[in-house]
Specification:
Blueprint: H1 2-33, H2 47-53, H3 65-85, H4 101-122, H5 134-155, E1 160-162, E2 174-176, H6 181-199, H7 205-223, H8 227-247, H9 257-273, H10 280-283, H11 285-303, H12 314-320, H13 325-352
Antiparallel strand pairs: 1-2
Length: 353
């Protein structure tokens, strides 16, 4: 059974990669024809950023559409084939009420909201002509997270978190937290969305980091026998690989908020669905570091009037000290690979001990 499911997941990931690869030139042409281009922050507002990224002015954005459109398109395609023909196509249909309804809905809603924000930026609407402000984005994240928390707690009855290794000491690892599940849920979703947005600042950075995160979550879902959820994560991985084919330095287009928002929130939702929030900092270590660098920088400037870093998020600090963009990206990928692997090791040990 598991071998068949593993083959199914790999097949869906491959189909997703090929479908996204075929779809990308059409999207790229559309973005070029309609001048859907990224507005880079000015030298006055972000001198370090502008110094290293001035050459990227005019690069198309909203490439993240590739990721969520491929995922949702294949979900709908195989669901229709399964409904019409049944038989073989049921193997490729990964829509399941208990496992993938929520993450599929999340990736759609977050992708659309992110798309709206990107369009505001393209048409220079909003604070400094850059779309939604940080405050407005956080409010949006909070709104989505609050709806999700209400659904998980009141509709699905989620009120327990699993804490690894407690059973080793004769204590139940399933800790009842009751109504506290709601604020924890909201924190996880907002933190995931905010961190993904902050990480999306170098060619291929968020795409690669997300690839390792979804890879780890795919393994987790598979180990928990949630094969449709694992299949969906595999489809996202395939689309991410196709996106990275064009997004690695020098990027053909940028991901945009439509990609970062959908990826960040969906990562959080899958972690909550699989009850692996404790392991999430391992799976998204770079996202945690990026957001912490922003928070520490703001706190330091408020309290001492001095900067801790030359620029934040921290990937810009490394650019400022002389690292080439590609070096920053590749080294952050390596950290992601190591930490995701470590997280999986701890996850499997927790199931044994």
């Amino acid at each position: 059974m598991q071998i068949i499911e593993a083959v199914r997941i790999l097949a869906l990931a491959l189909i997703s990669f090929l479908a996204a690869l075929a779809f990308t030139p059409l999207l790229a042409k559309f973005l070029d024809n309609f001048a859907i281009r990224k507005q880079v922050r000015t030298a006055e507002s972000a001198p370090v950023f502008f110094k290293f990224h001035e050459k990227k002015i005019g690069t198309p954005t909203m490439g993240g559409i590739i990721i969520w459109a491929t995922t949702l398109g294949l979900a709908a395609f195989f669901w229709i084939l399964d409904a019409v023909f049944d038989g073989f196509w049921a193997r490729l249909n990964f829509i399941d009420r208990a496992e993938t309804y929520l993450p599929l809905a999340t990736i759609l809603i977050a992708g659309i909201f992110g798309l709206f924000d990107d369009l505001l930026g393209v048409f220079r609407i909003g604070p400094k002509g850059g779309g939604l402000s940080i405050t407005q984005k956080i409010f949006l994240y909070l709104s989505i997270a609050a709806i999700g928390a209400w659904w998980f707690y009141f509709k699905l009855g989620f009120d327990v978190f699993t804490v690894p290794f407690l059973s080793y000491y004769g204590i139940s690892p399933h800790v009842y937290i009751g109504i506290w599940y709601i604020p924890i849920f909201i924190f996880v979703i907002v933190a995931s969305a905010f961190s993904a947005n902050e990480t999306d600042g170098l060619d291929g950075l968020l795409g690669g980091v997300s690839l390792f995160a979804f890879g780890a979550l795919t393994v987790v879902a598979f180990a928990l026998d949630r094969y449709d959820l694992a299949a969906m994560s595999g489809v996202v991985m395939g689309a991410l690989l196709a996106f990275l084919w064009f997004n690695i330095y020098p990027a053909r287009f940028f991901m945009g908020d439509t990609g970062s928002m959908s990826l960040g929130i969906t990562i959080g939702i899958i972690a909550l669905l699989t009850d692996t929030v404790i392991f999430l900092p391992f799976f998204v270590t770079i996202l945690v570091i990026e957001s912490l660098s922003v928070i520490l920088q703001l706190a330091s400037k408020k309290l001492t009037g001095k900067k801790l870093f030359l620029s934040t998020p921290i990937h810009h600090h490394f650019e400022a000290i002389g690292w080439h963009e590609s070096k920053v990206t590749m080294r952050f990928w390596i950290v992601s690979a190591i930490m995701s692997s470590l997280g999986l090791v701890i996850f499997f040990l927790s199931r044994i001990l």
